[in-house]
Amino acid sequence: MANHILSVILFLPLAGAIVLLFLPRENKNAIRWVANMFALAGFIISLPLVPMFWAVKDQPGFKFVEGGANNWIPSIGAGYHIGIDGISFLLIMLTTLLGWIAVLCSWTAIQERVKEYYVWFLVLQAGMLGVFMALDFFLFYVFWEVMLVPMYLLIGIWGGPRKLYAAIKFFLYTLAGSVLMLLGILFLYFHHHGMTGEYTFDIQKIYQTSPSITGTAAVLLFFAFFIGFAIKVPMFPFHTWLPDAHVEAPTAGSVILAGVLLKMGTYGLIRFSIPLFPRVAMNPTVRGWMIGLSIVGIIYGALVSLMQKDMKKLVAYSSVSHLGFCTLGIFALNPLGLSGSVIQQINHGISTGALFLIVGILYERRHTREISEYGGISNVMPLYATITLIMFMSSLGLPLLNGFVGEFTILQGSYMENKYWAAWAVTGVILGAAYLLWLYQRVFFGNVTNPKNEHLHDLTPREVLTFAPLLIAAVWIGVYPKPFFEVLDQPVKAIVSTVRPDYPLNPPAPVKAQFAPAASGQAAAAGGSR
């Protein structure tokens, strides 16, 4: 199994989707059970990857590589070539976990076209996993586009009142970025042929020839990839599709959109934009713009969150702010910044995924997300209020919870490059605490002022089960993040050495203080003089 563990993880959701096609659409409970079984199996089957990866985490390059270059469509040089490093390993584990949670939370929320819903959700799961595994540009692009269609349908069919507007906006934005990225991929493909005489989409081979692209061509290629990924993140000012998509999407769609789909953008920046064009990424003007847009996104997203009257829209804009931290860490371009960015991507998936679950539970009971409709909810839903408080604290970066680890590491990495970057970014932490605590005060504290809220029932066992793994992960990363940093150490250092060959990756050990011997020597001298 070790030789094909990635293929099993990748194709299991597709197998589930095929099985669902043969079930009668009238038997909704059977469809739900089968979909949940395959989603849970996808997570369980990925667990053996943890000890397997841990055993080889310090080896350079990609692990568990399957297939090879040019073995799929030889005539154009495309291959079924997959593999992972520490960065993609963490994102795959996040995807399998959130995929199961999203399917589980849909049990009562989805009542129409149940069969189609779960089929498309499992296809979406396979597309996301493929993006994080692909080592071939053609394969990567196929999975990137495969992911787009199910998400469009999930929003457009099972979304809210403005679902068609939100779905079309999401589709057009993402497709525009994808077309630019496709042009960049084709340029690299033909450039590699010009350098070596070989037609191939193999990413590792293109890594070797892309640094020879210089001047205007390199800058244009960098931005072709950057815009495609920045729309997906989304970075300011490419973010305007996100609030609409989140607000109109079903709860499970929002969980998977915030938890995983946005990370495909940051993953693309780390995997492609920076290593393929290291000189452009390190150009002071380009880097300054990237950092500036990240900081604007941090502050803008937080300020707009403060003004929201809709809980889901508040959480959506908070994603713009939190992902700004992730891109800030990426373009700090040092080991602390990059490691912190990946950790914060995982943290955002855990915390914001939980926040959308929290909003979705209230919406299922009351069919409104207006903050003014609530108040004193902790009196009638104490367990729900407790879990919400923990996840709010996780999102705002309370020490001993996961959000603190990522934000602190990013700020530290940013400060090492420029103290003003960190100074501006830290305002996002303060504003994040403000909008989350104010939201909690208005919804949960005080007396129940609305009679419609007096008889709300607390969490069901199924709902508690959706939160349990997220709570465990939040506390684990907050208390003991060392394993996550160890997994990231090798790939992060490889990226930094590519972009900044002269960067000291192993700084010298600090000089030991000599205070004690000096003090004892002085005491002896004083004793001798007496």
* Uncertain ranges: 513-530
Relative strand content: under 5%
Q: Would you tell me the structural class of the helices and strands?
A: mainly alpha
Please outline the major beta sheet: 2 strands, antiparallel
Helix content: over 70%
What would the principal axes of the Cα set say about the shape?
globular
Radius of gyration: 24 Å
Mean pLDDT: 87
Number of strands: 2
Number of domains: 2
The total of helices stands at 22
Strand order of the largest sheet: 1-2
Q: What would you note in describing this structure?
A:
It is a single chain. With about 525 residues, this protein is mainly alpha-helical. It contains 22 helices and two strands. The protein starts with a helix and ends with a helix. It has two domains: about 1-280, no CATH class; about 290-500, no CATH class. It is about 75% helix and about 0% strand. The protein has helices at about 5-20, 30-45, 50-55, 85-105, 115-135, 135-160, 165-195, 205-210, 215-230, 240-250, 250-275, 280, 285-305, 310-330, 335-365, 375-380, 380-395, 400-415, 420-445, 460-480, 480-500, 515-530; strands spanning about 65, 80-85.
